[in-house]
Amino acid sequence: MTIPDRAEIDLSVLILPQQADASGWTADAQAEVEAFLRRWCETDSWLAEHPPSFRWHTEVNPSETPVDAASVQALLQANAALGLPTVLGGLGSWYDGATFALEARTPALMYGPRAIDWAHTVNEYVPVEDLVNCAKGIAIAGWRLCR
Question: Cα separations (Å) of 140 from 73, 76, 129?
Fold first, then answer.
């Protein structure tokens, strides 16, 4: 019989913008996750004597741009003018705009194809119609913001 001498568990912890710490990052969430897991381990005699250690590989900040931001409204109006969807949504992963929004205090938006289904996959692509519609939307929104 073989008994392993250790175990590793990988977790992905996604937090909402309202859960960010005072500096806009994830230190508070990390501390909360670690405290919860330590309390849970204390209920097991072996784990209580051999508590886990934690290593965070990356820290990414959560981000949200207010619906009433001029850039959001300009893109919504551009989509309406083009007959495109005007539904806002979020993304459960990170992108560069989130850090830019935090560090530069500038609203950042994700605006793109109608679906993310084709992104980051083998043979990744964007339908040409979506590319054209995005270019039109950005052009109209930019024109409206700059006039």
Answer: 12, 10, 17
Domain around 85: 70-146
Q: Are residues 108 and 142 in the same domain?
A: yes
Q: How far is CA 30 from the centre of its chain?
A: 16
Give the count of domains, the chain.
2
Element at 40 (helix H, strand E): helix 27-41
Average pLDDT, the chain: 90
Cα-to-chain-centroid distance, residue 51: 31
Q: What does the pLDDT average to over 50-54?
A: 92
CB contact at 8 A, 108 and 63? yes
> Tokens in use for 99?
């850090």
| Tokens found for residue 127 | 């339908």
Whether the full predicted model's pTM is greater than 0.90, yes or no, is no
Both tokens assigned to 39: 């309390």
